[in-house]
Amino acid sequence: MGNFLRKFISCFQNFLTLEFKIEFSGHENIRSNHQKTMEITKESHLTPQGDCIIGVNATSSCFDLPDELKNKLKSENAIVTFSIKVHDQEFVIQGRGDPKLTFTHLEDIVIRKSDFVCPRTLSVKCDKASDSLPREMVKLLQDPKTKGTFTITVN
Q1: How far is CA 94 from CA 20, 55, 111, in A?
Q2: pTM of this structure
Q3: What is the CATH number of the domain that holds 125?
């Protein structure tokens, strides 16, 4: 009976929607003009060359994500929605999971339009990158006092 119950729970979890929120801060060097990626980082320092970064001082990295979320994201059938909220503005991105994801980077989370995977990658085949972020939101994120929320929802 124990084995049956474990299999039942495992199957049931495949139908659950999981959500995880990460808080982050703005930085004066936020440019958000990369055409293929978007990143948040736990680092506090940012140079102007970090043109895909939209937030610093993030509360989580790929490594810190809950195992349940990582397991769902390791399916190529996983559909991921990312919501970025800053003040009263919201920006939504759709992406996919991938069996090659490792989630081992201790500082960063990167979402990508391509199917490239490295330890920093959280999602691939995303429909938008940092250059799509509304310029009004980018302007808000150029203030270090600005707080944002990066919400990950996996179906």
Answers
A1: 15, 19, 10
A2: 0.90
A3: 2.60.120.630
